[in-house]
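W.,

You were right to be curious about this one. When I first looked at the sequence I had no strong expectations either way, so I just let the prediction run and decided to look at it fresh. Below is the sequence, 106 residues in total, followed by the output.
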Amino acid sequence: MNTLSEVMAKLQERGIPEFQFTDKGFSDGSNRIYKPKDLVIIKVYRFEGASDPSDMSVIYVFEAKSDAYGYSINSYGVYDNQGEAYDNFLREVPEKDRDEQLQFVL
């Protein structure tokens, strides 16, 4: 997949919700809140616009210990729009080995 919209469409087709970052952690739209210890980053997609540096985006796909999945989108670099608390939250979430990431195929 080459574009952000293609990856998002595949995630939505699979029923994987977008996590919203709150001051308590990630929310999947229900009453469930995920802390960093509840999650593992299983895939990271990075995108760069061909002519516009502000098109730099990243999608993190998470697996929760409860076997649920979710994803989060952010701009990166100087265009990061989530803020320091989001960045610090992500730093605490472990990332699976790259070889294991290949198991999560859209």
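Here's what jumped out at me. Helices lie at 4-13, 84-92, 98-101. And, maybe more interesting for your project: The first strand starts at residue 20 and ends at 22.

Coffee later to discuss?

I.
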